[in-house]
Amino acid sequence: MVRILVSESDPAESLRTVHALRGRGFDVCAAADAPSAVVKAPMADLVVLDISTVDGFELWRRIRAKSRAPIIGTTRRDEDRDRVLGLCEEADSCLVKPYPDSEFLARVDEVLRAGRQAVARIERGPLVIDSRSREVRLDGRLVVLTRKEFDLLRLLASDPERVFTRREIMYLVWGDAWAQSNRTIDTHVNSLRKKLRRRSLIVTVHGVGLRLGLLGEAQAAS
Questions:
Q1: Residues 156-200 pLDDT 10s
Q2: For every residue of 50-72, which 3-state class applies, written as one string?
Q3: What is the pLDDT of residues 75-115, one digit of tens each?
Q4: Cβ neighbourhood burial of 176 (10 Å; 0-12, 13-18, 19+)
Q5: For residues 94 and 57, what is the distance between their CA atoms, to the nearest angstrom?
Q6: Domain coordinates of the chain in residue numbers?
Q7: Most confident of 13-17, 92-96, 97-101, 217-221
Q8: Cα–Cα distance between 107 and 103 in angstroms, integer?
Q9: Architecture of domain 121-212
Q10: CATH of segment(s) 3-119
């Protein structure tokens, strides 16, 4: 049975979340405070973490140091936009309160399914993406990426002939927390291009979205 840890600052919200998850048959444990969450995290298959608190990022960091379980971050709509984007940068998915139980449970299913179905290794010519070690190599050179940069590149490489719309990218990489934030995507694309040193390895299809550059395109621009 899948075990889910819930770390929520609002007792009423915690109770609602636990009830919804147990209703779907999950084994759920609620953490009463940050120390408890850190202790219980290694035993969880998924963590639902309230990142809107003052120490939200610090708690995320401590949990991540103890566990590689995926994290769904939750935050309030009135939270500072830049701060939330920074916190969601490292989460596997992010939800903005208030949200219906149906949306929350769908997100839980998606994150768990992604973990089960994640392709361990993607090779696109000289580009190699290892999902288990979360390493990227291009022409044998290790490319150090942030969590979301890695997720974005892996998404594009998972279906290289497909043009992903910005809406799809925000949903699949950032969990749709800020679906209208084109700046977030552009910032990560620019950073990826610099780190990969092949600008056209990520192609912008104007008015549509992004796709992985064809091998010939990437080599020509290197």
A1: 998 888 898 888 788 777 765 555 566 889 999 999 999 998 888
A2: ECCCCCHHHHHHHHHHHCCCCEE
A3: 876 666 665 666 666 667 888 888 899 999 999 998 888 77
A4: middle
A5: 13
A6: 3-119, 121-212
A7: 13-17
A8: 6
A9: Orthogonal Bundle (1.10)
A10: 3.40.50.2300
Residue whose tokens read 């048959």: 25
DSSP the chain: --EEEEE-SSHHHHHHHHHHHHHTT-EEEE-SSHHHHHHHGGG-SEEEEE--STTHHHHHHHHHHH----EEEEEETTS-HHHHHHHHTTSSEEEEES--HHHHHHHHHHHHHHHHH--SEEEETTEEEETTTTEEEETTEEE---HHHHHHHHHHHHSTT--EEHHHHHHHHHTTTTTT-HHHHHHHHHHHHHHHT-GGGEEEETTTEEEEPPHHHHHHH-
What's the residue count for the chain?
Answer: 222
Task: Look up residue 95 and give its two tokens.
Answer: 């939800």
